[in-house]
Amino acid sequence: MKLLGRSAALATAGALLAGCGAGGPGGGGGKISDDKIVLAVLTDQSGVYADLSGENAVRAVEMAVADFKKKYGDKAVAKEIEVVSADHQNKPEIANTKARELYDRQQADMIVDVPTSSAALAVANVAKGKKRVFISVGAATTALTGEQCNKYTFHYGYNSYMLAHGTGTALTKSGSENWYLVYPDYAFGQDMEKTFSESIKAAGGTVVKSDPTPFPNDNFSTFLLKAPNLDPKPDVIGAMQAGGDLVNLVKQYNEYKLRDKGVGLAVGLMFITDIHSLGSKALEGTRFTDFWYWNQDDDNRAWADRFNKETGARPTAVHAGDYSAALQYLEAVQRAGTDASDPVVKELEGHKVNDMFTSTGTIRAEDHLLVHDSYLAEVKPESEVAEPWDYEKIVDTIPAAEAFQPADPACKL
Amino acid sequence: MLQQAFNGLVGGAFYALLALGLAVIFGMLGVVNFAHGAFYMLGAFGSYVLLDSFGVNFWIALPLVPLVLGVTGVAVERLFIRRLAPLDPLYNFLFTFGLALILQDLVKRQYGVQSQPYPRPSALNGSIDLGLFTYPAYQVFVLAVSLVVCGAVWFVLARTRVGMIVRASTERPELTRALGIDVARWVTPVFGFGIALAGFAGVLAAPMRAVNPLMGADLIVTVFAVVVIGGLGSVFGSVAAGFAVGLVSALGNYYVPSLSQTLVFILMAAVLLWRPAGLFGREEATL
């Protein structure tokens, strides 16, 4: 009660200070609340996802703000656009508290990024209660646009269906019919195992065996050595591990020379930062689904060069998604002429996205999922790596309509 | 099957080296060193930094990194552990736990959370034909080296004068002191040695495991279980239990993957029910 009282007082104070009486978040207005737009990046600043999103996600959003200001100059709907950030440490309860603080105390109009599914679901819940916009980029769970969807939450970039469907279907159809799945024994891994199995079976393949592995785990040798002796022998090991566990698994996969024994490797989720830490040699030939790659075309590369100048690193697909999400949000505010949530949400629904991140995107009105082309990528052999971070080869494009699942009837906005 | 057992032994080699250090430190100082995993991590990071920033290879890192960490251990013992020793054991527990968190975060600050690449030494890049199956040469090397080190430690403790003093001062500090031996003098080097062993395991791990700030924290829980199974303070017990736990988890992964995480702790519970002081432990710490 106390908290509610304080936040209501703050909101009122904010509205009075602005002197425009926008009527608080969600009200129609036609103006900008407290004379500025506040974008909040809620991210992991010190944990396992700090490299793939983290501090650099804040830089990406700042780049979007700079581009927006450059494009509209004096015609921009708000004079001041502020970027704030907070660390959720991948914990849902902290994400919940931080999201409330950002919306209430820092007057954030929207929250973006939020890796870790459980944390993103917590923020979605806050966004629903506060009636303010939340665009998830870093989280994988399909629940954000499924049974737990809401009017103010958008899912931008990728999800576990896209990963499983892309890699599982494409590899099965290209001849890797027998799979051995190893997945970390917690929510993310179990979810991935389920979607991968479904995709493989739907494409006519077989899951020979699927084993849960401890999480975290530094020794995968038992599972790897088991692979060539399974009957029938699997064509490919589907590894659902992430971060340090994935690195352990790949190192050991190479030590036991499984590729020479005719067992390939496919990974469920991998970012360019993972390849960087393993070296492309260790992962040579590994296939996975990606949704943006910095060196794919000139546009991407130009943006990645700017990003590199600011941060000293190449952007992950999540960074690019953060940039696009922030930019599209600002564009929606520009079109609506206000930062009040309801008109902005209306502008985003059904909007076609065409920017550096994707030229094929549509924000689906039924469930707020951004559907766009995704890609089957392969890690280049070391001999083809022309410069640092140049690790990926795009083998195939999976059209938007196939890449993502149809809208879940369980989602009622 | 045999190959799986061999696998378990290689995994067990790391448990054994870490448990050995923990056991020696506990036996001599009565300190449960929660920072042990962090020193293992520093060992791996030390070899990464040497290679990445100075071009120093694995073979030089293997003795150098443990040496540096051993000296660091000596400093830690002198500056902190010694002062906390007369107080409630809880203080040392909290200190080592805090130290582990600080070390982890410092590394995280500097190098981030992504794993760092560390190549296998080129001399050990191939596979060795062990008769029944071929096995990566590096893994064979790890197993051999850790057996030699564990054997050497056992030999020193069981057969030499230094070992006798260390054993005597662990078991009967008062009596040993009465015989004119300066027990306190041996405490510091033993602590440093235990830390050096952890660093050594870390260097060995760098080419085959993910080098990241959390690698020690992930491992240390299992190592504590190993020490408890072996019997607190028992050197031989720690080594035997290290290899045994490696075997059990490898076979567990093979037959019942979903249980493999809990298997070690089921084993620990079973051992404690049967022998409350652990397999080789007695009421007082012994060899």
Automatic annotation (TrEMBL), chain A:
<dbReference type="InterPro" id="IPR028082">
    <property type="entry name" value="Peripla_BP_I"/>
</dbReference>
<keyword id="KW-0732">Signal</keyword>
<comment type="similarity">
    <text>Belongs to the leucine-binding protein family.</text>
</comment>
<dbReference type="Pfam" id="PF13458">
    <property type="entry name" value="Peripla_BP_6"/>
</dbReference>
<dbReference type="InterPro" id="IPR028081">
    <property type="entry name" value="Leu-bd"/>
</dbReference>
<feature type="domain" description="Leucine-binding protein">
    <location>
        <begin position="37"/>
        <end position="380"/>
    </location>
</feature>
<protein>
    <submittedName>
        <fullName>Branched-chain amino acid transport system substrate-binding protein</fullName>
    </submittedName>
</protein>
<feature type="signal peptide">
    <location>
        <begin position="1"/>
        <end position="18"/>
    </location>
</feature>
<dbReference type="InterPro" id="IPR051010">
    <property type="entry name" value="BCAA_transport"/>
</dbReference>
TrEMBL record, chain B:
<keyword id="KW-0472">Membrane</keyword>
<feature type="transmembrane region" description="Helical">
    <location>
        <begin position="56"/>
        <end position="77"/>
    </location>
</feature>
<keyword id="KW-1133">Transmembrane helix</keyword>
<dbReference type="InterPro" id="IPR052157">
    <property type="entry name" value="BCAA_transport_permease"/>
</dbReference>
<feature type="transmembrane region" description="Helical">
    <location>
        <begin position="186"/>
        <end position="207"/>
    </location>
</feature>
<feature type="transmembrane region" description="Helical">
    <location>
        <begin position="12"/>
        <end position="36"/>
    </location>
</feature>
<keyword id="KW-1003">Cell membrane</keyword>
<feature type="transmembrane region" description="Helical">
    <location>
        <begin position="137"/>
        <end position="157"/>
    </location>
</feature>
<keyword id="KW-0813">Transport</keyword>
<comment type="similarity">
    <text>Belongs to the binding-protein-dependent transport system permease family. LivHM subfamily.</text>
</comment>
<dbReference type="Pfam" id="PF02653">
    <property type="entry name" value="BPD_transp_2"/>
</dbReference>
<feature type="transmembrane region" description="Helical">
    <location>
        <begin position="254"/>
        <end position="274"/>
    </location>
</feature>
<dbReference type="InterPro" id="IPR001851">
    <property type="entry name" value="ABC_transp_permease"/>
</dbReference>
<protein>
    <submittedName>
        <fullName>Branched-chain amino acid transport system permease protein</fullName>
    </submittedName>
</protein>
<feature type="transmembrane region" description="Helical">
    <location>
        <begin position="89"/>
        <end position="107"/>
    </location>
</feature>
<keyword id="KW-0812">Transmembrane</keyword>
<keyword id="KW-0029">Amino-acid transport</keyword>
<feature type="transmembrane region" description="Helical">
    <location>
        <begin position="219"/>
        <end position="247"/>
    </location>
</feature>
